[in-house]
Amino acid sequence: MGKDKKETSAIRGKKKSQFRNIMRRFMKNQTAVFGLVVIVVLLIFALFPAQLSNPDYTIQDLANRYAGPSAQHFLGTDELGRDMYTRIVWGCRTSLAIGLASVGIACAIGVTLGTLAGYFGGILDNVLMRIVDVLMAVPNLLLGISIVAALGNSISVLIFAIALGNIAAFARVTRSSVITVRDTEYVEAARATGASDGRIMWKYVLPNALAPIIVQVTTSLAGNILNISGLSFVGLGVPAPTPEWGSMLSNARSIMRDYPLQIVFPGIAIMLTVFAFNLFGDGLRDALDPRLKN
Amino acid sequence: MSKILEIKDLTIHYVTDDEVVKAVNDISITLEEGESLGLVGETGAGKTTTAMGILGLVPNPPGKIIGGEVIYKGKNLLKLSEAEMRKIRGHEISMIFQDPMTALNPVLTVGDQIMEVIRLHQKVSKAEAMKRAMDMMEMVGIEGGRCNEYPHQFSGGMKQRIVIAIALACNPSLLIADEPTTALDVTIQAQVLDLIDNLKKKFNTSLLLITHDLGVVAEVCDKVAIVYAGRIVEYGNLESIYNNPKHPYTNGLFGSIPDFSKKAHRLNPIRGLMPDPSNLPEGCAFAERCPNATDECRKRQPPVVEVEPGHSVRCLMFEKEGR
Amino acid sequence: MIKYIGKRILMLVPVLLGVVLLVFSMMYFSPGNAEDYILGDMATEEDKEAFREEHGLNEPFVIQYINYVKDALRGDLGISYTTKQPVAEEIFKRFPTTFKLALLSTLWSIVIGITIGIISAVRQYSILDNVTRLIAMLGVSIPTFWEGLMLIILFSVQLALLPASGFTTWKHWILPSFTIGTHSAATVMRMMRSSMLEAIRQDYITTAKSKGQTNFVVVTKHALRNAIIPVMTLVGVNFGKLLGGSAITEIVFSIPGLGNLIIDGIKVKNAPLVQGGILVIALAMALCNLLIDVLYAYVDPRIRSQYVKPKVKLAQKSATTEEEK
Lengths: 294, 323, 325
Prior knowledge:
Chain A has helices at about 1-10, 15-30, 30-45, 50, 85-120, 120-135, 140-150, 155-180, 185-190, 195-210, 210-235, 245-255, 260-290. Chain A is mainly alpha-helical. Chain A is elongated, with a radius of gyration of 23 Å. Chain A contains 13 helices and no strands. Chain B is of the alpha/beta class. In chain B, about 30% of the residues lie in helices and about 25% in strands. Chain B has 11 helices and 12 strands. Chain B has helices spanning about 45-55, 80-90, 100-105, 110-120, 125-140, 155-170, 185-205, 215-220, 240-245, 250-255, 295-300; strands at about 5-15, 20-30, 35-40, 65-70, 75, 95, 175-180, 205-210, 225-230, 230-235, 305-310, 310-315. In chain B, the strands form 2 sheets. In chain B, strands 6-7-8-3-9-10-12-11 form an 8-stranded mixed beta sheet, with helices on both faces. In chain B, strands 2-1-4-5 form a 4-stranded antiparallel beta sheet, with helices on one face. Chain B is globular. Chain B starts with a strand and ends in a 9-residue tail after the last strand. By secondary structure, chain C is an all-alpha fold. Helices cover about 80% and strands about 0% of the residues of chain C. Chain C has helices at about 1-30, 35-40, 45-55, 60-75, 85-120, 125-140, 145-160, 170-200, 205-210, 215-245, 245-250, 260-265, 270-300, 300-305, 310-325. Chain C is flat and about 85 Å long. The interface of A and B includes residues 1, 2 and 5 of A.
């Protein structure tokens, strides 16, 4: 009872206090805060890899291949004697950059499609949603693999391939969210004052349909980082010699029986990153919509 | 007549990390065999929690029974083990819920749901239990042949009849009805009330009726307890409360009912809201809304005062009159 | 019900046409020519021309697409460039393996996910609940291929208990299905938990308790029957995804499945094989989703009655007449 009262007063309150409320709920969630901290650390690594590790990740030390952890190479060296720690740090930059770029593109396209479909409905909605159905009908990874195989191995193709698999999810989430907002009184009111469709969508509908989209961004980011490493693992991801966690695993696979540590570290890096984004996304969802929380 | 239920100073709080919601505070009521008692109060006054406390179904956590006794036929229910309590629930004490739309399990047939309680408390075969379930349905006015249908195939009033059939299937000594008609259409309300009243007389069942509707109480009950912020503020038999209401809150409740015999232009509602049960005042909880409140009211918890035999009030205004 | 299924199958047609178009144009417009890959560097111009003529590669895009769809409708998905065998045959040779892998993985996910999900919900906020929720989150965060590699290192290399590759005996099945199954189990567990928590809060649970029912029966009979419905959907969707999505795990464990076949095909630009493979996967996933919806109606009487119209109308009629009395 008491809780409900607080929640309603939060809705009535001004935007600022609503934001503060979300922050307060988020900060109370320990695992989500842990996720956020890890993400911040990863971002620092991604922004300053040269300062935090070796500026050159290609230095080879062929005499010192497959070395175990030591003071000099504290995660050991790979099949060409390159420092594993350096490559993992630079790999962080690769994964986050491609992940963010692909989510950004997918989000822009998906949200636009979803908003148009949800707001206008009718034939447009039908056509757009059938396109989304087609994209949903092909598993993301296979879609990515075939695009990269068709268009060639390059970072820009990879970003496009990963993004394409995400568009459908963004379009669906946005559409259903927009539909619930579309018929509210404040949108009716805006229409009554003679605002154009574009203005209504941009100023009234989208801001109020934002919460699930924000959550989708973190979920997609986590999924994309997994898919990037998966594509690289089958040799269709980031072209060599750019360091990438999935391709590190792929390189180490043939010798893993003798040097299992080669497999362990890049995998942990992927897992930790995805884990952090998932925890963060979960906490964000609970904070944005307390009714969903169990 | 013998006492069937006696609640003494029952106190139930909901304890969470942030706050303590004092839902039920020192509630005491007595119910004789075959008698009906109306527990009247606003939403959130602690009526349902009291009922759950009797059945031992207060969700824990966060609910905690802080103190008091619930004596049913000489046994303190709060001291019984979970297994002993299960033998009482549905068998000796059963409950009708507020919202028939949600009180029935949507994926089980109504026959199954009536049968379940019979099979739990009576050693009968499945076929026999089904027969009794169908009899119960007939008794509440539904064809027994519809026992294989699912809840969504019935209207709201009929669902409530099924809930009543479940509650009465084992012929309980005490029936707790928690706002049994609130969720129903006005025309159906009277039917359901009549049904409860008739069945109650037929089986000589005692009834604890929880409601916010004084009209319903007048129709069915022998005794009335007015609850405010988890406390009973006035308690007595129907006539004394209706003809001679003492507590300002009771008076306020009567003032909130439109009276068509007088041509009043406005209702006389109680101003303000019930205090937050997680933040109850030190003194009388009603003081903030009370037209007669004094400074003393805000400082001191008023004692229970018996203003006439069997009619007690919890208000400082009557402190000197009493006993 | 049959009408509904028919309608759903009809709605599949444009989606599948779209999938074919998508994959078809990707293969068509991509740089590099099939004949160069297949015939190798030694082939003469005449050989290449003959190859193009044989496989209809000289026709314009639209004609090629229409021809492909026409053939596909007859069950002819073209000839694999590499093996010269019919693509449909190649696919259906591999399909049972992928299907079996998906099925076993789903079994793991059901057993692990549902059990832990229920316990976690019933003991909400207990240490067990908190720990399993974290593990589940970790489970969805692990790249499956890495989990597979780690399991190989542990069980095949270190302990020498289970084989690391192939898919012949039951021992071969354990690691790959467990690898995929745990990932899937994590999602099932999360859904089961939240669905169960939702169900436990419903009024009918209080009704059941007020009848004197034991907690165990309240949870298993009343709550679970309601809570399992959305979980069932998830299990079905997961199963559908596994039919197409376990490609990388198939590679890790060298399992001769459909995913492995398609990825091999992609690498050598074996267009008919890739198009056929993805089409079959899309079809299998769609049919799987359809099956779940039908099953859904079977489990949830509220949805069932939407399809079995006449009976409900009668029931509603009698309900209203009763009420009128």
